[in-house]
Amino acid sequence: MHLLVVFLLVLSPSIAHTHNSCPKAKCEVTRQKIEKIQAKMRQGYTRAQGEKMEAQLRSLRAIKSKRCR
User: Fold this and answer.
1) How far apart, in whole angstroms, are the C-alpha atoms of residue 43 and residue 41?
2) pTM beyond 0.70, yes or no
3) Residue 40 and residue 52 in contact, taking contact as beta carbons nearer than 8 Å
4) Is the separation of the CB atoms in 60 and 67 below 8 Å?
5) Do the Cβ atoms of 64 and 31 come closer than 8 Å?
């Protein structure tokens, strides 16, 4: 899925511009990243991996709280 998005963004500058300038799109991407990390956490992880994922979640949640309403 991510490769398809990257492929489309590379081929179409107008799509890339729309994607980067649309707050709803950025919020959706942030939400998807949060969900992906949470899914990984449900599968189990080491302490180091857990700390890294928690830091990523904190960062993404901060972005979400600032940009997404």
Assistant:
1) 5
2) no
3) no
4) no
5) yes
Is the CB of residue 18 less than 8 Å from the CB of residue 5? no
In angstroms, the CA 42 to CA 33 distance is 14
Specify the pLDDT at position 18: 44
Q: Residue 56 is encoded by which pair of tokens?
A: 């990523």
Write out the two tokens for 43: 């599968």
The first and second tokens of residue 23, run together, are: 């707050």
DSSP of 1-57: -HHHHHHHHHH-HHHHHHHHH-HHHHHHHHHHHHHHHHHHHHT---HHHHHHHHHHH
